[in-house]
């Protein structure tokens, strides 16, 4: 997964700023696992809110997060006001990424030593992911070739930006 490219950078810079804890959400678990790994490198506590359906279906991803020292909670949970409100309406709610984000942000907003970390979409994440494209450019140079087309997944944007932005910059220059 490309997620450690930004997870390690975010954990490093948060630790340098004196942050002691990061909260986040995860769907299938790749981002939660990556941030858990990064937190373990820099001594930062990590609390992951994993979408309940995925939490139940993917116990090994949860186990990896916990192995790195993170707390992994099924979302919606009883730990937050937003989670409790949803559980009051439907105690068997399967969860969603939006609910998990709400819970992670709610906890981060309550403490000065805690920040919310996101694994896609944001500008700094796209920047961290450009290592993918920079490496691809070097590999193409070693092969003595240039691609005609660059293709990447475009879910949250970080994977696509990571491969495409360096090539785009090369074209613009």
UniProtKB/TrEMBL annotation:
<feature type="domain" description="Tryptophan synthase beta chain-like PALP">
    <location>
        <begin position="1"/>
        <end position="167"/>
    </location>
</feature>
<dbReference type="InterPro" id="IPR023026">
    <property type="entry name" value="Trp_synth_beta/beta-like"/>
</dbReference>
<keyword id="KW-0456">Lyase</keyword>
<dbReference type="InterPro" id="IPR001926">
    <property type="entry name" value="TrpB-like_PALP"/>
</dbReference>
<keyword id="KW-0057">Aromatic amino acid biosynthesis</keyword>
<keyword id="KW-0663">Pyridoxal phosphate</keyword>
<dbReference type="GO" id="GO:0004834">
    <property type="term" value="F:tryptophan synthase activity"/>
</dbReference>
<keyword id="KW-0028">Amino-acid biosynthesis</keyword>
<dbReference type="InterPro" id="IPR036052">
    <property type="entry name" value="TrpB-like_PALP_sf"/>
</dbReference>
<comment type="pathway">
    <text>Amino-acid biosynthesis; L-tryptophan biosynthesis; L-tryptophan from chorismate: step 5/5.</text>
</comment>
<protein>
    <recommendedName>
        <fullName>tryptophan synthase</fullName>
        <ecNumber>4.2.1.20</ecNumber>
    </recommendedName>
</protein>
<dbReference type="Pfam" id="PF00291">
    <property type="entry name" value="PALP"/>
</dbReference>
<dbReference type="GO" id="GO:0005737">
    <property type="term" value="C:cytoplasm"/>
</dbReference>
<keyword id="KW-0822">Tryptophan biosynthesis</keyword>
<dbReference type="GO" id="GO:0052684">
    <property type="term" value="F:L-serine hydro-lyase (adding indole, L-tryptophan-forming) activity"/>
</dbReference>
């Amino acid at each position: 997964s490309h997620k450690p490219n930004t997870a390690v950078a975010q954990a490093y810079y948060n630790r340098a700023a004196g942050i002691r804890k990061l909260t986040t959400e995860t769907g299938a678990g790749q981002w939660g696992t990556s941030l858990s790994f990064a937190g373990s490198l820099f001594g930062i506590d990590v609390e992951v809110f994993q979408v309940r359906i995925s939490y139940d279906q993917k116990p090994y991803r949860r186990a990896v997060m916990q192995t790195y020292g993170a707390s992994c909670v099924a979302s919606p949970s009883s730990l937050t006001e937003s989670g409790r409100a949803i559980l009051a309406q439907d105690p068997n709610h399967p969860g969603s990424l939006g609910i998990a984000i709400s819970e992670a942000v709610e906890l981060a907003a309550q403490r000065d030593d805690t920040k919310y970390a996101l694994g896609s979409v944001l500008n700094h994440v796209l920047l961290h992911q450009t290592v993918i494209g920079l490496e691809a450019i070097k590999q193409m140079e070693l092969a003595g070739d240039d691609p005609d087309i660059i293709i990447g997944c475009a879910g949250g944007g970080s994977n696509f930006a990571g491969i495409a932005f360096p090539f785009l910059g090369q074209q613009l220059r």
